[in-house]
Amino acid sequence: MLISKIQQYNTNQYYNINNSNRYYTKQSAIYNLRPLNHDTFTKTTQKTSLNSQIPHRNVSFLGGIANISNTFEQKFTKLFFKKLLREGIPDAYSDKELITSEDINLLKDLKVLNKKSSIAIKYLKEYRDNMFPIEKEVFALLETLSKKNPDLTLQELIRLKYPNAEQSLINHQSKVLNKISQISKVLPKKEFLEIRKLIQNSYNKIFTTDPLPEDRFGRKEFIIALRGIQISNNKIKQKMLDVAAKLPQSSDSAHAFIVKYSQPYKVVHNAKGEIVKIPRDSEEIGLRLLIPSVGTDDHIHPQKAFRAEEKARQNGDKTAENLSRYKVSILTSKRLNELKSDTPIDDFITTQDPNIPQYIQKQINKLIYIAEKWTKYGRLKDASTLSDYILVLKKEFELRSSKIKIDLDNFEQKIPEIKEKAEQSSIKQTAKKLKKCGHADNNHKEQYIDKNGHIIENRKVLRHSSRFES
Predict the structure, then answer these.
(1) Are the CB atoms for 146 and 121 separated by under 8 Å?
(2) Which end of the chain has fewer CB atoms at under 10 Å, N or C?
């Protein structure tokens, strides 16, 4: 059953397996084609793609960023980043190896996460090291429960922990709400009463026995409501909002995760504003453990700030002239991409993790390794494009950050050789294609001119003409 499902999946794409010269279809590159009761499952991030990107010939990043005529997105496409992710790239903003969207899609196609937990856990286990701390904690819990209850699904397992998780979650939420209440006491009476009303309504929801999913306390809704209350003292309001941000959620609390995904359905609103109930299942839980670690490309400089700079340049602002004009992005996880949002990179380092510069350097080191590997195994166009990308990253951080200093070691000296090899390879491939199609230069004119100097029929042209021409 597993083999037949895998064989149906995108058999037109091929992958190069590590350093081997043999080629395999996508499905056999991802799995070892063994039955569901086998312990081994191999993910795609250890493989490399044969697909190569042809760079724009009129674009050269070696002569300086200011002289580039094409945009960043045209040079470094989504396909380019997908190729990198297949090599196993570390997150630029954490120390986690990124998961590819192809892994996620294959798990969906195989439909193994909705099967009994003993099967689902074997597939998820391969990604344990890719998971963020809370996801890893929940996975460890599910793995332990599965050993005792192998025939239960992931959702059935997580519901076993619901009573204890709910109590712990209530205690955490109550402490945060109580702290906000204490802060609000210094406000004018009218403002204080509004805050108290919001907090009391929240307590009522929190302590309701077995509420429906749509009637439960919602962290996001509480923060939106708190932000909407008119408070005369901005410092006090910001202080309350900072405390409210500490309300537990599924990304930072295992108890919140368990309570959320123990619910029978989730509530969303359709285009008409109507409530729609979408059933939760074990696949949603399994994918939720992985999706925060999926690789995305994040703009190093916020797009909002970039647009402001571009407008300033158009208006003749000289201070914006020497800034980067290209929206350079770097590979990071979905979670940290969303967390960074429109925050400048240096501010993000200060508020999130002082080790981010080391994580970025680690990714750069891996990119250099990949460029040299691709060069060695003949993927010269890809290696050339990647070399340009590494230089662009270095330049962008020089322009945008005072905290990040990229060290390329001796790689910059190798780039001209890589690009020369790529150019020579491109010329050879073009000549080979022309020759194969019968359009190569032909200097043997005497073969097509008779002894009287009359031009006779060119047999090559005749051979390749359409059979349907009259």
Answers:
(1) yes
(2) C
> How far is residue 217 CA from its own chain's centroid?
30
- As averages over each run of 10 residues, the pLDDT of the chain (470 residues) reads 37 34 33 39 46 38 38 88 96 96 96 97 97 98 97 97 96 97 96 97 94 93 96 96 97 97 92 90 98 96 80 73 77 96 95 97 98 96 96 93 96 95 88 71 48 51 40
Do the Cβ atoms of 6 and 31 come closer than 8 Å? yes
Crossing angle between the packed helical segments 282-290 and 254-261, to the nearest 10 degrees: 150
Residue 194's contacts (CB-CB under 8 Å, 6 or more residues apart) are: 229
Asked whether the CA dihedral 136, 138, 144, 148 is positive or negative, the reply is: negative
Give the pLDDT confidence score for residue 82 in this predicted structure. Answer: 95
Q: State the pairing for strand pair 275-279/295-299.
A: unpaired
CA distances from residue 217 to 174, 202, 211, 278, 341 in whole angstroms, order as listed: 11, 6, 9, 18, 26
Q: What is the crossing angle of helices 189-206 and 219-228, to 10°? A: 170
* Residues 392 and 61 sit within 8 Å (Cβ to Cβ): yes
Helix, strand or coil for residue 71?
Answer: coil
Letter string b/e over residues 370-398, b meaning 16 or more CB atoms within 10 A of that residue's CB: bbbbbbeeebbbbbbbbbbbbbbbbbbbe
pTM over 0.70: yes
Q: Which parts of 259-325 are beta strand (E)?
A: 265-269, 275-279, 295-299
Does residue 309 come out as left (phi exceeding 0), alpha (psi in the -120 to 50 range) or beta?
alpha
**Whole-angstrom Cα distance, residue 174 to residue 243?**
12
- Strands (DSSP E) contained in 8-73 are 14-16, 23-25, 48-49
Of 271, 264, 336, 265, which Cα lies nearest the Cα of 299?
A: 336
Count Cβ atoms below 10 Å from residue 170 Cβ, excluding itself: 16
pLDDT at residue number 219: 96
Tokens 């063994």 belong to 34
What is the secondary structure of 172-214 as a DSSP string?
HHHHHHHHHHHHHTTS-HHHHHHHHHHHHHHHHHHTSSS--GG
Dist CA 262 CA 256 (whole Å): 10
pLDDT at 406: 97
Ranges of H-type helices in 88-188: 101-110, 117-125, 133-148, 154-160, 162-184
Of 122, 245, 100, 266, which is closest to residue 180 (Cα–Cα)? 245
Question: CA 465 to CA 90: how far, in whole Å?
Answer: 52
Give dist(CA 387, CA 382) in Å, integer.
9
What 3-state class would DSSP assign to 34?
coil
Q: Give me the amino acid identity at 165.
A: A
Rg for the chain, CA atoms, rounded: 29
